[in-house]
TrEMBL record:
<dbReference type="GO" id="GO:0051016">
    <property type="term" value="P:barbed-end actin filament capping"/>
</dbReference>
<keyword id="KW-0117">Actin capping</keyword>
<comment type="subunit">
    <text>Heterodimer of an alpha and a beta subunit.</text>
</comment>
<dbReference type="InterPro" id="IPR042276">
    <property type="entry name" value="CapZ_alpha/beta_2"/>
</dbReference>
<dbReference type="GO" id="GO:0000902">
    <property type="term" value="P:cell morphogenesis"/>
</dbReference>
<comment type="function">
    <text>F-actin-capping proteins bind in a Ca(2+)-independent manner to the fast growing ends of actin filaments (barbed end) thereby blocking the exchange of subunits at these ends. Unlike other capping proteins (such as gelsolin and severin), these proteins do not sever actin filaments.</text>
</comment>
<dbReference type="InterPro" id="IPR019771">
    <property type="entry name" value="F-actin_capping_bsu_CS"/>
</dbReference>
<dbReference type="InterPro" id="IPR037282">
    <property type="entry name" value="CapZ_alpha/beta"/>
</dbReference>
<keyword id="KW-0009">Actin-binding</keyword>
<dbReference type="Pfam" id="PF01115">
    <property type="entry name" value="F_actin_cap_B"/>
</dbReference>
<keyword id="KW-0963">Cytoplasm</keyword>
<dbReference type="InterPro" id="IPR001698">
    <property type="entry name" value="CAPZB"/>
</dbReference>
<dbReference type="GO" id="GO:0030036">
    <property type="term" value="P:actin cytoskeleton organization"/>
</dbReference>
<keyword id="KW-0206">Cytoskeleton</keyword>
<dbReference type="GO" id="GO:0051015">
    <property type="term" value="F:actin filament binding"/>
</dbReference>
<dbReference type="InterPro" id="IPR043175">
    <property type="entry name" value="CAPZB_N"/>
</dbReference>
<protein>
    <recommendedName>
        <fullName>F-actin-capping protein subunit beta</fullName>
    </recommendedName>
</protein>
Length: 252
């Protein structure tokens, strides 16, 4: 979480399981210059034979696959098109194939805005990158039920570039927001983690979208409105001159 977030990149998984599909890359699925694909649970390019790669096994790997399927649906509902990848890792040493009581992961979303093909043409380019890093700790209650403490750190990076080949040139608007939240929720089985994480991420992204709309774009509209007048300059000067003449007449 202490690393500086960077825009997400794409890699292609050419393995049998990957079937040439694209997956998102960040620091959390990277080992040196290799990145792990959630499709095949392998690194590309392959790691050295003596390395000890970080990858989920057993129940945690199954949970990772379930989460990817769930957030694929989330992507279609909220972004229509784009990319998503979810990666998980164990925080317990020597755990068995059972789901560990302490694990972490990251949920990634990337949405790109297609711009003009011609580099000299006018148009808008943009990208939305969401990085949701989470940590989960499961505890038993006195009644025998389970609760999970979720720590979520969400970063959203928004990039917008507007090119006007005729006069203005290129305008680059880029910004980011980071929000952190913690919540304890009841959980029943491994699928319950996917449900809880989905709700938490949905709430955070909704708040971030509203804040970007109200603060980021709203403030920009206010600034532009103060800098650029929509009224005719000559008409404003004539009105000011007439006002000065009327005030001078009243004073006389």
């Amino acid at each position: 979480m202490s690393n500086v977030d960077q825009p997400l990149t794409l890699q292609i998984d050419m393995s049998t399981e990957g079937a040439g599909r694209e997956y998102l890359c960040c620091d959390y699925n990277r080992d040196g210059q290799s990145w792990r694909s959630w499709y095949s649970n392998t690194y590309n390019p392959p790691l050295e034979t003596d390395s000890d790669p970080v990858m989920p096994l057993g129940a945690l790997r199954e949970l990772e696959l379930q989460a990817n399927d769930a957030f694929e649906t989330y992507l279609k509902l909220y972004y229509d098109t784009g990319y998503t990848s979810t990666y998980m890792w164990d925080l317990e040493e020597g755990s068995s194939n059972a789901l560990p009581n302490s694990f972490a992961g990251v949920v990634l979303f990337k949405k790109e805005l297609d711009g003009p093909v011609d580099a000299e043409a006018s148009g808008t380019l943009g990208a939305w990158d969401s990085i949701h890093v989470f940590e989960v700790g499961v505890q038993e209650t006195s009644a025998g039920a389970q609760t999970a403490r979720y720590k979520l750190s969400s970063s959203v990076m928004l990039t917008l570039k507007r090119r006007d080949s005729a006069s203005v040139g290129e305008v680059d608007l880029s910004g980011s927001l980071t929000r952190q939240t913690e919540e304890t929720l009841p959980v029943a089985g491994a699928t319950g983690h996917v449900v809880n994480l989905g709700r938490l991420i949905e709430d955070v992204e909704s708040r971030v979208r509203n804040q970007l709309q109200e603060i980021y774009f709203g403030k920009m509209v206010d600034v532009v409105g103060h800098l650029r007048s929509t009224e005719n300059l000559e008409a404003s000067r004539n009105a000011k001159k007439l006002q000065e003449e009327l005030v001078a007449g009243w004073e006389r």
